[in-house]
Design brief:
seven-stranded mixed β-sheet, 331 residues, 13 strands, 2 domains
């Protein structure tokens, strides 16, 4: 029987290609098996360069905000824990992870973490930033006095009613906190240069139903000169019903600013016979030899006032009541 000769190519095909068999019985009843190659398909599979062939086996990293409570694993050390905070340290942002035993460890914020087995890039949480923006917008919608700001509205023409204060510092403080409100209402603040002759000021202004007069008095304490002057002015007819006189217990309006704004626990007590303002400047180590020194000291104090929250409640209550009084509709 002659040998079957195969070419080199045919040998390669038969060797590399899986075989399938076909079994049948021969004439003698014996089973004969014949092997032959299966149909040849694409022996190299699909195009290895198709698709994102550069992608790592674990998938590409995605950005995730490092919100508090997020559980991640550091790839390099295997440390697994929940995010407790993100802070800036050493010129870089650091995320702190607390493991199940309560131990905490810091890692540079950025790539190198796994979330549910997938690579992630931790980024600074934006919730805090969004909260800050919301707070800023909320603050912008309020005036320094805490009332709702009216944006774009022009100041009204001044009404007949007025609020009178003792001096320039009082007027500047009222303007700083309530200026927006007063312009919207058309209320002007005027200075009295003291209340020694308050009754004469009332007669000159001639208040009435459409011309109300509010007066803010410093150091309005029972038994003081100011208290006696106010009692006399409140009985003045026929103006008494159209005049509201209120005050605060402080020696000077400076003292109505919360001392914490100047780094003090309380305003110092100045001995009798010494100028209160000069004594305060001396205590704070500020120049106080001239009137210009006193003016600069007040500007520095006034500069610490950002809103009504920086003022004492007694002054707030008096000014708010005076504004309500002079802006109330005529009966």
């Amino acid at each position: 029987m002659g040998a079957l000769a195969l070419t080199a190519v045919e040998c390669q095909v038969y060797v590399l290609t899986p075989l399938r068999s076909d079994s049948r019985r021969g004439p003698c009843g014996r089973r004969h098996t014949r092997a032959y190659p299966a149909p040849v398909t694409d022996r190299y599979g699909s195009d290895v360069l198709s698709g994102d062939w550069r992608a790592p086996r674990g998938g590409r990293s995605r950005e995730v905000e490092a919100e508090t409570g997020l559980v991640v694993e550091d790839v390099e050390t295997g440390w697994c824990g929940a995010v407790t905070r993100v802070e800036k340290a050493g010129g870089m942002q650091v995320v702190h992870l607390e493991d199940r035993r309560g131990r905490s460890k810091g890692f540079p914020l950025g790539p190198g973490f796994l979330l549910d087995g997938s690579p992630v890039i931790l980024t600074a949480p934006k919730a805090a930033a969004r909260a800050q923006v919301a707070a800023a917008r909320q603050a912008a919608s309020r005036t320094a006095s805490g009332s709702v700001a009216v944006h774009g509205a022009k100041a009204r023409v001044a009404s007949g009613s007025r609020i009178f204060v003792e001096g320039r510092h009082d007027a500047e403080l009222v303007e700083r906190v309530w200026g927006h409100d007063l312009r919207i209402e058309g209320v002007v603040v005027e200075m009295l240069d003291g209340v020694d002759d308050l009754s004469a000021a009332i007669r000159e202004f001639q208040p009435g139903p459409d011309r109300r007069m509010g007066v803010l008095v410093d150091h309005l304490v029972a038994g003081t000169k100011e208290h006696r002057v106010v009692q006399e002015a409140q009985r003045l007819q026929p103006y008494a019903a159209h005049v509201r006189i209120l005050g605060h217990p402080y020696v000077d309006v400076w003292q109505s600013v919360r001392p914490e704004r100047l780094g003090l626990r309380a305003w110092p007590v100045i001995p009798r016979g010494q100028s209160w303002k000069h004594g305060i400047c001396a205590h704070l180590g500020w120049p106080h030899e001239t009137q210009a020194d006193i003016a600069r000291a007040w500007k520095q104090i006034l500069g610490t006032v950002r809103s009504y929250a920086d003022l004492e409640p007694t002054l707030l209550a008096s000014v708010e009541e005076l504004i309500d009084f002079v802006t109330a509709p005529a009966e």
